[in-house]
Specification:
By secondary structure, the protein is mostly helical. The protein contains five helices and no strands. It has one domain. Helix 4 packs across helix 5. The relative contact order is 0.15.
Length: about 170
Amino acid sequence: MRRKVETTTVKLPEQISRIGRVIETVFSCDIWEEYKELKAKLRIGEGHADYYTVLRANDEAEANYLRASRLLANAELELKKFMVEHRKTCAAMRSDALKSLKEEKLEGSRTKTITNQDLDDYAAVHFHDLWTAQETSKVQHEQTIEHLRVLVDAWKSRCRTLQGMVAKVRNTT
């Protein structure tokens, strides 16, 4: 017997707690635009031997490292928000699954103990589209965080490389 799972969407305030302008600055970012720009700027281009070009690239890399860190923080916040909703949605599906499996047990068509895996399996079968969407979105959010960590590390590495290039170019001129 398939039952409809009712979920509620709770609208949270823009900022639950404020610690000043830092939070506003860190978490006011267009994630897509920041990502596109930061990925595109990982190249220094021409002028590897020009001191001022390398110095300017170093300054920009340091600023972009901070932007990438802010982008990661925003994405982690979005993951936390998603996980709250994900838990609520899955809990509703699992609750319905538990009711149905208990009914089966009372009717005698089920004899074994109901496990967490049984609840997940029931939800995956009876709420296929919603379960699949939730699980897929969870993986996408988590993999995005991992990818953004790589981007932060790339900018950090770029900063170290350019600092070495600045010192080398300064010594040759």
